[in-house]
Amino acid sequence: MEDEENEALSRVISELEALHHDDPNTPSPFSEPSLLDLLSLLDGGGGGHPLWDHFAARKLPLSSLLCPLSAAMDSPSPRLSLLASRAYLSLLVSPSAPLYTLFTPLPFLSLLRSLRRALKPISSPSPAPAPPVDTSHDCRKTRRKRKAGRPRDAAAAAVLPADHQSDARDLLCQVLELLDSVLRRIRLDSSHDGLKSLIEAVAAILDASTGHHRLPDLCFRILYGLVSRPDHGDQMLSAVEVLRSLAPMILSPVKCPARASALGFLTRTMVPLCRDNDGVRKALVYLPRFLAMKAPEKSEPRALAVDSIMEIVRAMEGEDQIGFMQYTVKMTKGKTQLRLLAVDLIVALLTSLPDPLGLKDSSEIIDCQWGMKCLEALVQRCSDSVGGVRARALLDMAQVVGFLSGDEENHAQLHEIMGIGSAGFNELLRRRCVDEKAAVRKAALLLITKSMALIGRPIDEVLLKTVGSACADPLVSIRKAALAALSEVYRRFPDGRVISEWLHAVPPLIVDNETSIQEECETLFLELVLDRISQAGKVNLGTNATDLESLLPEGVLDLLKGICDGEVAPCIKKICASLGKKKKLKNSIASSLQNVITASESSWLRNSMPIEKWIAPPGAWQLLSEVSLFTPKAVDWEFLHHQWQLLDMVNLEEKGEALDRGELNSISWARDRVSLLQTISNVCLELPMGPAVDLAEKLFNRIENFNMHLSEVDAHIKALKTLCKRKETPEKGNALVLHWVHQLLSKALKIVDGYVSDVSEAEKAKSFLTPPQSGRRNGKDFLASKSMLQAVTAVFTVGSLVLYCPSADLQGIVPLLHTIITSRNSEPRPKKLAGLTVSFEEISPSLYNQSWVTLGKICLVDDKLAKRYIPLFVQELGRSNCAALRNNIMVMMADFCVRYTALVDCYIPKITKSLRDPCEIVRRQTFILLSRLLQRDYVKWKGVLFLRFLLSLVDDSEKIRCLADFLFGSILKVKAPLLAYNSFIEAILVLNDCHVHAGHSETQGGLHTETQLFSIRGTDERSRSQRMHIYVSLLKQMAPEHLLATSAKLCAEILAAASDGLLNVDDVTGQSVVQDTLQILACKEMRIHSNRGSDTTEMDDEGGDGGGGALLAARGKVVTQLAKKNLIQNAIPIFIELKRLLESQNSPLTGCLMECLRVLLKDYKNEIEEILVADKQLQKELIYDMQKYEAAKAKSTVKEAVANVQRSDSYCSPADRTATGIYARVSEKLGTGGKIASAVADAAARATVRSVLKEVNRTVATPPLRSMSVPKLKSVMGNAGVLSSNRPPDVLESLRRRQSFESDEEN
């Protein structure tokens, strides 16, 4: 054994002597065998004494070991480097080792570099092989240069096998253990840079030690030793360096083992050390603040940073936690990134630390009100100027409210601090619900949902309407949030107005484009409507209560009443149909509705009221008619028979007259009869045969009398047809239907023909009277007659029969209807009507209108008749004075467009004229019908259609404007995204009714009358604002590249045409076109932003996808550069020429042009001289206008700030209410830079002057002007009686032109 040690020692010393004679400037490293020999010597039992003796005998200094070891530690080979590091550290820990001789900066730095390289990939992909000759040549050269036993250099080093990687990791663990031992023996207090480098190296190993279990423990042991031992310098500085090196791991954007281990080291190791060491405690206390300043901006990494910070804060003492809370509150007033992080930290503090509101025993807590301060700061951030901060603050507030409201003790404090339920809180929510940022709107709706448990009463009407309107938001996520918020309000406070708003907002979402919203709508309807109504099945009908509301569950009557609303009913029908198909409608719903109707009848009878005047609760029959289609077995026939008899006990003629007068009870009665018949038709297959036959006979007799109200006819025919289908075979059923249809048609023909003959005879008799009597009075007699009402019902019944039985024989009916609808024309008539000179439009308007409707139904089933009569329908649509008839014809034209698309397509321009109908209902109906046809591609966006739809954006009706905004902002933007861009120039000319443009002189085919109807010509403020609203709506639909192209087209096709004389600016319409163009170019919607054109259906939160954001930024940069290029090369020359033309004509458009140029060039202030090099005068004028505008803006800003400060003076001390104090606060608020500071100084000077003059003249009144000695200016013309002056004329002129105090400020 001793011989082996001697041999190893001799080999080490031999190589060391050989290396000692080499060039000292390029030291060579130890070879691996020598390092292994050295390690065997140092690790052996003999210690290091023989090594030191042999060094002394050979006269080798101990420092001669350092250079070869340093070179070996710097070797690119990980194994060789780590072996050298281990040998170096073993030397330092060997007994009797001269530490201060061996421990020098250079080897120590080499050791640190070796540690940094230790965890890099050991094997790397082999480079591409070189030609064989060159490779061998290089190898021979390398071998000649290398001495025997030396390792290869980096270029020729062999790649280590894969199993050497684990060997390197084991070596690294050994090196770190030795390093920990060395650090216990040496001091680093004199080398702060070395300490810092060591900490950085260990932190790098920590960051790269994924998958290794021992390395993190060793690294943290080393770091703890550096902090805990005062031998290594100031412990606070050491702790600062250690904590700073761990910050990147703590703020890791993903959850990783390094992050978890670093946090564990801080909370389990460093925190206990802080209790005994104030320096380390100070460093740890400031660590969360440092992490907050370094936190990433993206939302997900920021959330991880908040978790890391809070894990550290939770481990701190109470006093330190309060200090960090105060720092967080101050962060809410910092930059945007800090405010975003601060609101997230506040919610983490409030939900993580105990007793945030200080309601419990807090004797050990220094500041028991810290939670209130956090809540106040959070409320303030809900009104932040940055949308992302507002959204985040609202989301965090919702989370805090949901967390703290779980404890009832916190309710009072939350009401006091946040003002939940107060007018101010409701106003904040209302503003945020209509915020321009989608993320803010969504967060506000979530806050409403969470705060319902605390409000304790229904929200006010305005906020309720705002939440309801949010259900129609273009964004899917907003609609979902509004759906949840409004439903939560309904659950908490189901009163009448909440139910009404819910029914008007939620059921319409059943036709939403998003399937998930449809499903949620169905689920909520089932829960909040049908399940509540099902509870009425438990009502005890045996009680003596006379009040129906006391019998039924709360809100059931309000629900049923809201269901029968005209806007809600179609949606309810769709929801019930969808739920029925999914088999989600239960029999208990139908049973409960029957119970409600029976309870209402019983309550009415207990009050001794006549049963003839009783009507069921509104909506009960209507909902039962929809539910019974899917639950026919749950409806009792005895119940239906009894209700049918009750509704049949009244006089039909009296009810019909009451319906015509619009009495509410009669309308409800007719609606109930229709719903009852619908229910009967739904359950008729379950009826016994005998009652079914009796019912069919009664229905046929009632139809045959033609004395029903028109609203009942369809229900009777449908029920009768359904009953007839109960025959043994379908053929017999169809034959029976055809039989009674022909009977009814024959009788209807006789009634109508008889009435027409009576009218004709009356007209003939009237013509022989002297003097001739007016036909108007005779027409009133017919209008009130029974035969006229019967004829109207007969005509309507014919239309219903045709739809239910298209194969019916209509011989004789069509000619008769033709005679009625053409009675005003001079067409040949049948012999019996030859004397008819007054049209039925005047004699019987209702018969005239119903004849058109019935003829339209016939045309739907007969294409040959449709070809003949569609032109007549279009003609009548344009000339009829009856709004009801125009509305009905519009509905028929929409049906014709679906069935006979090619026939109607050529009449679309005439149909669209109804968009400007004087009746709002007709306009709205036209807009809705055409919009549906456009979405289903029965009508194309071509020709005049798009331009005529634009005027709906500024319609007098708010409902039509809302529909138009939704069409253009949501549907059209997706279906035809280029339509706004392609039609923008033409829209400007059409809206101004401009025909003086040479390129558009025949706009819309020269139809001047129609273009006037669809134009908003005029220079008044209202017309210009309406046109501008339309332009802005179109600009919002364009992507950045389309905005750029539109800007170029505006300059080239309108402004260039004006400067070239193609567009006459002397004409009023031409001036309006140019003025609109200049305003469009200057509006903020025309400015190009990088995020324009991205998917607007996504939330605009502060976070986002990095790749998408980079792409959008690059795209925006390119478009911005192109915009600048277009402005300089194309727009500015056109503006210069147009300015010269307008100045030569003294045109009032010059001011508009200068204002437009000022807006366009305000972002290029430093380049104006270069851009306007062709017109120096324009350059000077623009610079002057910009300076004047900025001065005026600064002046108005200061004035507003002063007013705000003065309004809050009641809370200030008297010293602060002086002019100096006020303007000092204004200056502090607005800053001290640029125009603002100058405006503040001028305002302060004026206030000071006024104050001084007021003080001087307080006791002395100002003398009248006539008593004052005023100098007079003498003329230089030498007039009689006036002394001549030696003053030159320019002096006197300057006195006359003295500038005022205000103008001096502007100059």
From TrEMBL:
Coiled coil ranges: 1154-1181
Chain intervals for the UniProt region annotation (Disordered): 122-161, 1279-1307
Location (main, coarse): nucleus
Protein's UniProt keywords contain Chaperone: no
Basic residues bias locations: 140-149
Single annotated GO MF: histone binding
Compartments reported by the entry: Nucleus
Gene: LOC103715120
Record-given protein name: Condensin-2 complex subunit D3
Gene Ontology biological process terms, A to Z: cell division; meiotic chromosome condensation; mitotic chromosome condensation
GO CC, alphabetical: condensed chromosome, centromeric region; condensin complex; nucleus
Organism of provenance: Phoenix dactylifera
